[in-house]
Amino acid sequence: MGVDSGLPDFRGEDGFWRAYPALRADRIGFQDIANSEALKRDPVRAWGFYGHRLNLYRGTVPHKGFNILRRWASMKEHGAFVFTSNVDGQFQKAGFPENRILECHGSIHRLQCSKDCSNEVWSANDFYPEVDEDRCILTSSLPRCPKCGGVARPNIFMFDDSYWNDYRVRVRRMRSEAWLLSVKRMVVVEIGAGRTIPIVRNVDERTGSPVIRINPSDYAIDPQKGIGLPGRAFNVLRLLEGSLL
């Protein structure tokens, strides 16, 4: 969904390294840097990566496909509930209500202690990372935990992560489950969900509701479960919107 807003696509090492050539030079892949151990071992390099992403997401304007989804939701009695594995905060920026968004991998716009010393999560709004993009390193001060003074980290579920604070996700999951119980004749619009990390697809198919699967290549779906539409998010949403007018 975010790619059509100009955000990088991390599918495969080539896509990741195009966005972070400094990591390509050191042969550091996505799983190597988006890793809780990497953050403890070299927080300046890890925050070079996450700080760049935070700045990028803050400056990105959501594409008009978000508005199309929001219009569809406004026409329904129970609106919509967003389930996303993206951590970029684009749905909030596009105007979806915060309490109707479940970010299953957390959000880069919130911080926690790297040791989860107090089980607290706080806003990243006061953290303005300065990054040397040529070397992918943080040049400003590291963010710190207000309780213990240790290095803070994004409140994101990383690879090999035993310190992620998932309290906010658990609360939102309860809200989403309550919303699901209130809805009849639901339709799932699934956009850009892959099979490498299939959490979104698994949730979509588990609802038992018809699925509209939008994906540039991996769009196949059992006809008994829904329909697959090939293409990029905004293009397909725009075509669907035109067919409904």
TrEMBL record:
One of its GO terms (molecular function) is NAD+ binding. Residues 1-245 form the Deacetylase sirtuin-type domain. Gene3D superfamilies: SIR2/SIRT2 'Small Domain (3.30.1600.10), TPP-binding domain (3.40.50.1220). Its EC number is 2.3.1.286. Keywords: NAD, Transferase. It comes from the Bacteria. PROSITE patterns: SIRTUIN. It is an enzyme of class 2 (transferase). It holds the Pfam family SIR2. This is protein acetyllysine N-acetyltransferase. It comes from Paraburkholderia lycopersici.
